[in-house]
Amino acid sequence: MPIRPFPIGQWLWILFSLGVLLFLHLPLLVIVLYAFSPDEATLRFPLPGLTWHWFAVAWGRADIWRALFLSLRVALLATGVAVVLGSLAAAAVYRSRFFGRETISFLVLLPIALPGIVSGIALRSAIHLLHIPFSFWTIVIGHATFCLVVVYNNVLARFRRMGRSQLEASADLGANPLQTFRYILLPELASALLAGSLLAFALSFDEIIVTTFTAGQQQTLPIWVFSQLTKPRQRPVISVVALGVIGLTVLPIWLIHHLTQEKTTTR
Asked: What is the helix (H) or strand (E) element at residue 88, kind and residue range?
């Protein structure tokens, strides 16, 4: 049977898709290349050679490790707070009917819609008025305000897809609230919670604007990278750090994608 050629329109869509992918990922390729460049002061292409030297330099920098561990701790704790509060807020809005329900839903979504600098100024003013010293905990509070939104959106969407019939059937069959949560609600919400947690973690890990207003004298990894951009001889080290962040970000996303694809195939 002869192979039919693609129509011109389909070729155009393929070329357009390839162009979008190049636009998105070509800057990442540039970062990868210059992490191996032996030239510390300029960005030349083609590269004058290849070296692993900057990886050793970055590995031995205590300031990078401090910034990385601070970012990880903040992101993990902010994600945990967002999962708890976002899930409870989504359950309250979905399951209850009360005056001001839509207003509350709007106010929950507002922090991620506002420009980061507006949220940062508002948080800094509130923290200052409450006489709370700027510390690790003020960064967590700032990050939790917008991380909560993505968890809330994912969980609320899953509640609406799930409907009420399963919960009502569980109650009719004599299950108590804890059993309903464990055997019905949690399995249904698991993928939404996982997706919301990953997105919240990623948003917190690379946040810089709100962090600038709430961190005080502390440096998370994005703030460290931003502070080094004015130092030309630090560019290769910055590229190495950026390459490590890309790896830390891509690996869990790939694992989740692989697991969800495997689950879909099994079904």
From this structure: helix 62-95
- Residue range 233-261, pLDDT digits in tens: 777 888 888 888 887 777 767 766 665 56
Task: Identify the pLDDT of residue 238.
Answer: 84
Quickly count: other Cβ atoms within 10 Å of residue 118's Cβ.
13
Return d(Cα 267, Cα 248) in angstroms, integer. Answer: 30
Alpha-carbon distance of 224 to 178, in angstroms, equals: 45
pTM: 0.80
CA distances from 234 to 172, 202, 222, 246 (A): 65, 25, 15, 18
CA dihedral 133, 139, 144, 149 (to 10 degrees): 120
The span from the CA of 262 to the CA of 258, in Å, is 6
What are 150's two structure tokens?
């993505």
Q: Cβ(146)–Cβ(111) under 8 Å?
A: yes
For 130-231, where are the alpha helices, taking DSSP H only?
136-162, 165-172, 177-180, 186-205, 209-214, 221-228
Listing DSSP states for 101-135 in one string gives: HHHHHHHHHHHHHS-HHHHHHHHHHHHHHTTPPPS
Q: What whole-number distance in Å separates Cα of residue 138 and Cα of residue 123?
A: 9
pLDDT tens, position by position, 196-237: 888 888 888 888 889 989 888 888 998 988 888 777 677 788
Cβ atoms of 49 and 179 within 8 Å: the answer is: no
Which two tokens mark 132?
């709370």
